[in-house]
Amino acid sequence: MRFGLFGGASAPRDVDAAESACGLQRVVDAHVEAEELGFHSSFVTEHHFTGIGQMSAILTMLAFIAARTTRLRLGTAVLVLPWHNPVLLAEQVATLDLLSGGRFDLGVGKGYRHNEFAGFAMPPEEAEPRFEEVLAVLCRALSSNEPFSHRGRFWRFDDIVVEPAPYQRPHPPVWLAASSANSITLCARGGYNLLLDQFASPEQIGERIGLYRQELQAAGHAYDPMRVAVARNCWVALDAADRDEAIGRQARVHERLLALSRGSESRPASHILAYSDTAGAREAHSLIGSPAEIAGKLTALKAQGVAYVLLFGQGSRENMRRFAETVMPGFAAE
Question: What pLDDT score was predicted for residue 256?
Answer without folding.
Answer: 81
